[in-house]
Amino acid sequence: MQLATLRPNGSPANRTVVFRGFLDTADDLTFVTDRRSNKISEIAFNPLCEVCWYFPESREQYRFSGKMTVVGEAHPSPELASARQRAWAKMSDAGRAQFTWPHPGQPRTDLDTPLSTTTPLAGEPAVEDFCLVVINVTEVDILQLGKNRRSEFVREEGADGSVLWKETEVNP
Amino acid sequence: MQLATLRPNGSPANRTVVFRGFLDTADDLTFVTDRRSNKISEIAFNPLCEVCWYFPESREQYRFSGKMTVVGEAHPSPELASARQRAWAKMSDAGRAQFTWPHPGQPRTDLDTPLSTTTPLAGEPAVEDFCLVVINVTEVDILQLGKNRRSEFVREEGADGSVLWKETEVNP
Q: Which residue ranges of chain A lie beneath pLDDT 70?
């Protein structure tokens, strides 16, 4: 899925991230990233984002807008720290090894040096640079190109903490 | 491809658009949109964007960042007005008919009323709401997941108006 954020210089940024499931049983989307990546400084500057996820076979587009929380090594919430460790354990060997690569986005001078020489194990604590990012979604826009239907959903929280999604059918 | 822009309220927006080719022989990307869509007010507020285009088969991601120009019915440049009319003529019947649909994003009260009753012809002048958007790309970030290679390209214009793309290989 594609994640749009805001750069500290005010310009939009956009890149592909891999959906890593919902947070527990909630509606929050998750993905993982490297603490050294630009995403992390962008989120610190402005936590708002919009995810665009297009499914070519069903010709459906989901737009999720919300606010991101970065869960790094020192996150104070035990629940989120545990979710981060579970996300780490679910990564493939190749996925975990990426977090030992040299600083992403920095100039690469030597193409002959391997990017990593070690693969941290799934059963070990997540490495320092491994971050889980949680998107608390507040609005969803679903477009179904095959049916020419489009709906907007806005999250509303009741006084008892329950979540309702208010739907409005709109012109495609 | 996915287009990230900035909403007037400062939050990022992200949606799928269809690439409509390069502008003439230049490096500028084009897409089309409806003058009534939110994109148009976002571009008027801030013309910066970043396009993310991921190719699942080759596992390559292209990120294009640049500045957008909207070419509507009254655009003063004869070259751009002509490019807009050519883009209109290349659209499918279904694509042209969309520009006669009711206001995109407004509440839809009646699902039984057809979205359009007319299909404007390719040979006729483009309808008023048809806009060509030109992205003048200034930076490109290419990530090749299969090869674990990543390069950044920055556009530089020589004194004679010639364009050079300065490449830097970076860590993926």
A: none
Residue % of chain B over a pLDDT of 90: 96
Residue-wise pLDDT for B127-151, tens only, equals: 999 999 999 999 999 999 999 999 9
Query: How many residues are recorded in chain B?
Result: 172
Residues of chain B positioned with their CB less than 8 A from the CB of A5: 12
| A130-162 pLDDT tens trace | 999 999 999 999 999 999 999 999 999 989 989
The verdict on a CB contact (< 8 Å) between A6 and B2 is no
Distance from CA of A111 to the nearest CA of B (A): 9
Spell out where A17-113 has E strands: 29-34, 48-55, 60-71
What value, to the nearest 5°, has the Cα angle with vertex B31 and ends A68 and B47? 55
Give the pair of three-digit tokens for residue B33. 């949109």
Q: Kindly report the backbone phi and psi dihedral angles of residue A82, in degrees, each rounded to the nearest multiple of 5, phi listed first.
A: -70, -40
Joined tokens for residue A31: 């993905």
Q: Would an 8 Å CB–CB cutoff place A8 in contact with chain B?
A: no
Closest chain B C-alpha to A55 CA, distance in angstroms: 10
Reported ipTM exceeds the 0.85 cut: yes
| Residue B26 pLDDT class (50, 70, 90 cuts) | confident
Interface residue A10 vs chain B (CB under 8 A) = yes
Q: In angstroms, what separates the C-alpha of B52 from chain A's closest C-alpha?
A: 6
Question: What is the identity of the amino acid at B51?
Answer: V
Chain A segment 83-122 residues within 8 A of B by beta carbon are: 101-108, 111, 115
> Does the pTM exceed 0.95?
yes
- Give the pLDDT band of residue B161 (cuts 50, 70, 90): confident
Cβ-in-10-Å burial (0-12, 13-18, 19+) of B38 comes to: middle
Put simply, whether B14 touches A (Cβ < 8 Å) is: yes
SS3 B61: strand
Cα distance between residue B134 and residue B42, in whole Å: 15
Contact status of B42 with chain A (Cβ, < 8 Å): no
